[in-house]
Structure formats: structure tokens, C-alpha cells
Amino acid sequence: MNIHSKSNAPVLDSYWMPFTANRQFKAAPRLFTAAKGMHYTTDDGRRVLDGTAGLWCVNAGHGREQITRAVEHQLATLDYAPSFQMGHPIAFDFAERLAALAPGSQDNKLDRVFFTGSGSESVDTALKIAVAYQRAIGQGTRTRLIGRERGYHGVGFGGITVGGLVNNRRVFPQLPGADHLRHTHDLERNAFTRGQPEHGADLADDLERLVVLHGAETIAACIVEPVAGSTGVLLPPKGYLQRLRDICTKHGILLIFDEVITGFGRLGAPFAADYFGVTPDLVTTAKGLTNGAIPMGAVFASRTVHDALMNGPEAAIELFHGYTYSGHPAACAAGLATLDIYEQEGLLTRASRLESQWHEAIHSLAGLPKVIDIRTIGLVAGIELASRPDAAGTRAYEVFVKCFEKGLLIRVTGDIIALSPPLIVEEDQIGEIVSVLGDVLRQVS
Ligand code: PMP
């Protein structure tokens, strides 16, 4: 089938694409039909280097046979079992494996795992756990949720409420009572940083101000991405996350790290909580959990949070929450095989070994016209371009299209380019990413 030919146009009509300019896309579709290792193949047979691990999820690279075989075997053995009031061993096995990897110290490990179907579901689950926990410990007035400007926490009503993406919030109503910290992005003081920026730890004190404004007794939880990804790779200033942790502890507020992107090795440690040495009370994950092969998310909870609910006021079901696909057997099989690969190939720490080379390579793009900032950490980079007057986002979008034509997949958000290759990336492929991107940046500018 030639999807580009006009006679096949109806083929594109029925699928209402998510977060896509549908009309624009369907006028000039870009389609992948296969993937292996670091590369996609397009419908017209071109190879495209994956500079974004799909949508930050294919950490072990594409087409991993171990995962395929595990899923195939699981579907042939037990395709589905009810997730409520019934169990199946593989969900318990996967949770045990995850618990061993969970962030936190020996005496405070987040080793209680609630399965969901996506990052958005993980976020709304964590927010609900936080509110239910407060009620279980006799703090039922604590229902307020604190997020952060320029945070992205998926698309559920909870997630868009605590998120700070205006386009995500403009159209839809929000949960009542939420408030936001300021974001930590500071081009004036922190431009072109490698790793954590120097300035801005004091922005965590916004939480103290919100405590004064609203009263601690109204606040259930504060959620942040340790590194904000989807809104343009915004890094936490040195000391910022620890300060948030201290303020939360002082006021009985649960701290939630949204690690849907940073979880499973993106920064060079299993979780950003490990990388930054700060232990939250809840961690949300998805994406790299199953290498993107089967949709799945997981919330990691501390024992304190978990046990409070197990001993809480509800006589029967301790947390009135769950999904048909919580702990889906095929997803658990994919997840277990993914963890095997991560362990066998040392992928959860590989970014730490590549980090200095990554910094060097990406920062070599500094000085190109219109590049106003470059930020790198782990195997993530944000490259910010000056916006065209009255046409914000068009410059980066043009870079995205031209990179795709030249065989490189990048991701853009506004005028920020985000890079996050699979963790199997080789040094020469990092070179290729920088070389293609550099060529395109010179052209576009
Ligand atoms: N939280 C964060 C930090 C994310 O980056 C994302 C997705 N990019 C989500 C939540 C939502 O995940 P999903 O698209 O799987 O619902």
C-alpha cells in the first residue's frame, strides 16, 4: 500500500491521532513500519536513527526478541485474568523484582508497587493514594495538591490539574484547590549547564509560601518531575529537590516524584531519586518499565504510605482504586524481560558512563545561530532555539521535519529540541545525532 497516494487518502481518516496536528500530519504523513535496535524503518524504506527512544520509552532499543518471546509465551499461557479479587503469579513476581530495584534507602524503600496502564494513570493513582493516605492517618482535611509550572503529568484530570502546560489546561476544568510552585528554568543565570544548574534551590521555598497561604493542614502532596521532560528538559538546581523534601517532611506533605521519563536508567541510575539522592514518598513510572513494548505504568510507594492504608479506616478494600489492566499478564511478562535485559546489559547505569561524552557532544552545538541554551543530564538533552517573532514553535518544528528527512528522529516542544536516545546508543551514533542536527540547525538558521 502506498499511503501517500491520494487514492488511499481515506486510510488516514478514521484514526484520530493524539497530541498531533491531525490536518497537517495527514497532508504529509510520516509513518514507521518497523524498528530494530537504534533504528526505525519508514513506509518508504528509509532508516531513521531514534534520537528519542520512541517517546522516551524504548530504553533497551527496539525489537528486543527476549521481550517478544516472553509476551508471546505469556499470552499463550494466560492471556488475561481479572485484576480485582483474583491474582496471577507473574504480577507478584514482577512487583517483587521491581521492589528489589525500588528507590530509597534500606530502612525507607519504596518497595510497594501498584500497577497501572500508563504514565497518566500512574500520576492520578499516586495523587489518589496521597489523599487516601492522609485520610487514613486522620488528616482528612488534606486534599490540596501542589504541582509546578511547566510540569507535565499526563492527561488525566489529576495530572492536568497539577501539571503546568497551559495548552493542556486551557480547555479543561481542573480539580479544585490545587496550586503550583514556580518552574526552575532560568536562562539568565543557568544557560548552557552540564548537569544540575547552580542557581535556584531557593525556588523550593515556594512550597513554604503555599503552606503559609493555604495552611499545611489542607495540603496532601506535592508532585514534581525531578527533571521536567516534556516541557523542554528543565533541570533541578543543585539542592532544590532536597529542599523540597525537607519542606514536605516538616509539614506532613507527601512528596511525589513523577519518574515516567527519568525512571529506568535515563539519568544513569535506576531512578532520578537515586541519582539525586533524595527519597520521595511515591514515585510514578511507565514507559521504560516495559521498554514501551506493552502499555504499563507502576506507582512505587513507601512502606509508611502503604502500611497506613493497610491499617486504615476501610474495613475491606483498602484503596478503592484500580484498573482492568492493572498488572496485565502480558505487560508483566514484557516488564520482567525488560528488567532482565537492563540487568544483563548494565543499561540502568550506562548513561552515567556515557554522560561526559554526551555533554561534550551536545554542547558542541553551542554557538550555532539561534541556539540560546543547551542543557544536558544523563542521556537527556534540551536544546532551546530563539523563537521566530509571532511564530513560536515553527523554528524547532522545521528542524524536526528536516531531521526526519535526513534520517534522525528528534522531539520538539515549542522551540525546544529534546533528545533521549535508547540507552544502548553507541558513541558513533551520538556523533551522528550531533552531526545531522548541526547540519539542519545551520540550514534552518
Ligand atoms: N508524566 C510524565 C513526567 C511524562 O513525561 C508523561 C508522558 N510523557 C506522563 C506522565 C504521561 O504518560 P502517558 O502518556 O503514558 O500517559
The helix count comes to 16
The biggest beta sheet is recorded as: 7 strands, mixed
Write out the CATH superfamily name of the largest domain: Type I PLP-dependent aspartate aminotransferase-like (Major domain)
CATH class of the largest domain: Alpha Beta
Cross-sheet strand order for the largest sheet: 6-12-11-10-9-7-8
Distinct small molecules: 4'-deoxy-4'-aminopyridoxal-5'-phosphate
Number of domains: 2
What is the number of strand segments? 17
CATH architecture of the largest domain: 3-Layer(aba) Sandwich
Query: How much helix, percentage-wise, in residues?
Result: 25-40%
Low-confidence stretches: 1-10
CATH topology of the largest domain: Aspartate Aminotransferase, domain 2
Distance between the termini: 37 Å
* Radius of gyration from CA coordinates: 22 Å
Average pLDDT, rounded to a whole number, is 96
Portion in strands: 15-25%
Task: Decide which structural class fits the backbone.
Answer: alpha/beta
Q: What would you say this structure looks like, in words?
A:
Belongs to the class-III pyridoxal-phosphate-dependent aminotransferase family. GO terms for molecular function: transaminase activity. Its cofactor is pyridoxal 5'-phosphate. The protein is α/β, with parallel strands linked by helices and 445 residues long. The protein has 16 helices and 17 strands. The chain has two domains: 127 residues, Aspartate Aminotransferase, domain 1, CATH 3.90.1150.10; 275 residues, Aspartate Aminotransferase, domain 2 (3-Layer(aba) Sandwich), CATH 3.40.640.10. The strands form four sheets. It has a seven-stranded mixed β-sheet with strand order 6-12-11-10-9-7-8, with helices on both faces. A four-stranded mixed β-sheet has the order 1-2-3-15. It is globular. 4'-deoxy-4'-aminopyridoxal-5'-phosphate (PMP) binds next to helix 5. 4'-deoxy-4'-aminopyridoxal-5'-phosphate binds next to helix 5.
